[in-house]
Amino acid sequence: MNPTLRYGSSGQFVQQLQEGLNKLPSSLPALAPDGRYGSKTLARVKEFQSGHALGADGIVGPKTWGELLALLAQWIPGGAPAVPATPEPAVSGYEAKLPAALKWASDQIGKVDFGIFDNQGRPLGIDFVKKIFVEVVRQYGQPVVLADVNFKPDGWHGSKVWAPEPWVGHPKYGRKSWCGIFATWCYFKAGIPVFWDLAKGHPVGPPDRPLTQVGAQSPDFVSGIRPGYMGYVSSFHHQFLIEAVNDDGPAPTLRTIDGNTSKGRIQRRDGDHQVGKDNFLYRRFSA
Fold first, then answer.
1. 12-75 — its CATH code?
2. What is the pLDDT of residues 71-118, one digit of tens each?
3. Which residue among 7, 68, 149, 184 is buried most deeply as judged by most CB within 10 Å?
């Protein structure tokens, strides 16, 4: 049985879906068979479903697959192209753990908000931020332990002002953004051996396949983006986990999960980051 596909899916079955749709009449442009279920593929699927009395929800389940393969058998001389009935081979190694990292990120949405306070006047999620620093941040090889006072911009215990970015070392000069630290923590919780080097300002590890930075000069820059990779907008020094590529073409937008947004919130953002703008690049595991 072919797997159910939907917006954001990727792999060989998406490519076979795209190739099959390209062989049928359509009022829409042909698809690039790149194995990524983006907005153009979604439009073609909905067009196909609408024209064949199927629910036009863009989800390619058993009914849509059945109708598509039946029509291909009629339109293509010699019958439908072979579509493997066996499941797509599982991605091995650290890539196989990226969905778990995204799940860890998604589960934390709404847990931090430095605009909401408990009955003791402490911000929502401050203890969670402390936790991720202790678990994955290293300074000179040692864990970084935070207290409430680290979130007071002036370093004074009695201050009623809170900042979502804690200081480490000095209250005036050592404020640390934790967007990339949050992404690193999600990798760590998914079983990927990484940590955040505070001096270098980026994630380190895994030891056998270290994370490498991929920029637009790479020939597979766009096609190499995978859900779960860490995106980085260098002009804003902001990092996040890529959840899906929203669009086909040379400059797609992204659906992401971002830590340390306004008031330190952890949020899902759709279309806020675009490939090709704001010095976007990403990190993936080295070969």
1. 1.10.101.10
2. 777 554 444 444 443 343 344 589 989 999 999 999 999 999 999 999
3. 184
